Amino acid sequence: MARLASEVQMELIVEMRFGSHLYGTDTPLSDIDLKGVFVPPAEDILLQRVKAVVATSRAKAPGERNLPGDVDREAYSLKRYLDLLAEGQTVALDMLFAPEAAMVRPPAGLWREIQANRDRLISRRASAFVRYCRQQANKYGIKGSRVAVARKALDLLSAAEARLGSTAKLEEVAAALEELMAGEHVALVDLPMPGGRQLPHLEVCGRKMSFAASIKNARETMARLVDEYGQRALQAERNEGVDWKALSHAVRVGREAVELFTTGQITFPLPYADRIRRVKAGDVPYAAVSAEIENLLVEVEDAAAASALPEVPDIAFIDDLVARAYRQKITGPA
Predict the structure, then answer these.
(1) CB burial class (10 A; 0-12, 13-18, 19+) of residue 18?
(2) 85-128, pLDDT tens digit by residue?
(3) Side-chain half-sphere CA neighbours of 152 within 13 A
(4) pTM for the model
(5) Which of 48, 169, 221, 299 has its CA 20 to 30 A from that of 290?
(6) What is the pLDDT of residues 285-328, one digit of tens each?
(7) How many domains does one find in the chain?
(8) Which segments within 78-162 are labelled E, that is strand?
(9) Measured between alpha carbons, how far is 168 from 215 in angstroms, rounded to an integer?
(10) Which helix or strand (DSSP H or E) is residue 320 part of?
(11) What angle do CA 194, 195, 199 make, to 5 degrees?
């Protein structure tokens, strides 16, 4: 098995099988995905040149996919890993709840301490789950109300462009957009711009359009979305041309999120691994999976709102954990 670059110098505190081998969805054709966390070498800490991520994999030609048995290894520095965990990123949460059976080497005491204090490390910031589920529902769903609002937005923007011209800005029809924003799947969101200022954007079914952009640009964005929904509806009927792997990830993340927000943990291997495997293999009709993702989005948002998880992780504990580990790496055991 390939060694991580500089593995001799850095201190791996945990390394585990990830992906399908963690979820319980692996097949004889699955490659091997390993994830780890390391304490950097003392010299890198002192010189402030710690690599956030160290990775190795087999050299492949452009576009070449992994073969069965290929090994991809990726390790995060301790600080980077805990930052990802504090942000509620799914990769870090999955690693946190990985069982002993997933480990490829005995974890160090520091990893045991992290797992023992996971109630201080997880929080409602795991809403990254919610964002992911919403993105997937917007991307793969064909819910009738979503199609209808996309078409309504296209009609409104087409009429505005015909009236005001192709160079008019979206902000010029802000009043006309109020009726559109009264329904679901539409929102007005402020996004940060360079210099710290906020710029309003119209969001329709997950697509964001700047008020500073032209009405023509917004109309073209909606036209593409309506066309995508039309193509997706045909795919649902024919059950073809579907990214089944992405769909399986959407179902998995949705179910993980509901469990995490409800119980404060995630169970591996996944109790519903067979369902995920069937979705990934394309053995479930697209329309059924699409409806499942739509329903999971509602479940996730309800579970997040009712969750007993703290609002934010214990940042002071995280800082102390990193400081202690790095100090000991530099000075040696006390």
Answers:
(1) buried
(2) 999 999 999 999 999 999 999 999 999 999 999 999 999 877 67
(3) 19
(4) 0.74
(5) 221
(6) 887 888 898 889 889 989 988 999 999 999 999 999 999 999 99
(7) 3
(8) none
(9) 6
(10) helix 315-331
(11) 65
